[in-house]
What does this fold into?
Amino acid sequence: MIYVHVPFCHRKCTYCAFYSKVESGKWKVESYVDALLKEMEVRKGEQAHPIKTVYFGGGTPSILPVDQLTRIVEGLHRCFDLSQVEEMTLEANPEDLTPDYLSALRRLGFNRLSIGVQSLDDRVLRMLNRRHTAQQALEAVEAAHRAGFENISVDFIFGLPEISTFNFQLSTLVTHVSAYALTVEPGTALAVQVEQGRVTLPDEDEVVRQYHELHRLFEAAGFRQYEVSNYARPGYESKHNSRYWDRTPYLGLGPAAHSFDGKHRRWNVSDVAAYTKVLNDLKALKDPKDLSQEETLTATDAYNELLMTALRTVRGLPVSAVPEEEKKKLQPYLDCSWLVLQDGFYRPTPEGLLHADGMAASLFV
Ligand code: SF4
It folds into this structure.
């Protein structure tokens, strides 16, 4: 599978701690695409496994004009065998999804959209510094549907002063929903607003109440939870994300992108200026460390990563992956019904999913 990181955004959302730059001119985007094409050339021999999914994430991939997106997709076809790709996703913000842009995405082979709706409350959207209104988000989803996208995911945020609504109109058009709890990351505008008392966020009990409320709304609308933050109509689980959780090797292209070959994790320099400089003056070919760093995962790292990902999924942790001497550590979670043993898996219950990260951390070796 291939991940392409697009590090640009129209403007910064108050809560965002991802690596992204506010887009500052056509030439910067062009020079990033030039560098990305060179990275594909340098790394084209690396993907040994059949490529089943391609995912453009960000940042805001839909910020890319059609001509630049076309150059990237053509570059991928030149350097990699995409004949077995089943799912090709683009993360998009609602305001970018014009009918012309959507048709171009279809022509380029995208068959799944992940749209950053975040909330259907305009006050909340303004507070988060989103550029779109709730109405624009709904219209974007409708336009995507009309353009022929039948696999559409929407992102929601909860843990806000008021619960985000999830309405019937939206639920009939989408196949997948991701819901993330708002977290206050150091260095973000939100952290400053909270510190200065300009924004008051709900306490933990209220966040948990909202989680249960959204869970109820999603399930009532026909979505099934398959990971802590992800719900899908049957058969529409994200193939790309499910493969991350299965620890399938992947190739990450672009600044700050991570790659995994089954034994090593590699991460590209997380600075778009350094990334483009290294690749556009071809120094990367002489010294790969200028482009990325790498660590070799030990058996312990691999097991801990498995705990972190598997316990967040409803499928759970394979009993066969747990060393005999570690099994007793799982017993208390079976006793308190956060886990059940089923079909050779330790499966988290709904309550267990809510505590997945803490449970995994307590089981680390
Ligand atoms: S659009 Fe996404 S990546 Fe960009 S600032 Fe907002 S949350 Fe961050």
Observations:
- The chain has two domains: 2-244, 299-363.
- The chain has 14 helices and 17 strands.
- The CA atoms of residues 144 and 313 lie 29 Å apart.
- Residues 26-43 form the longest helix (18 residues).
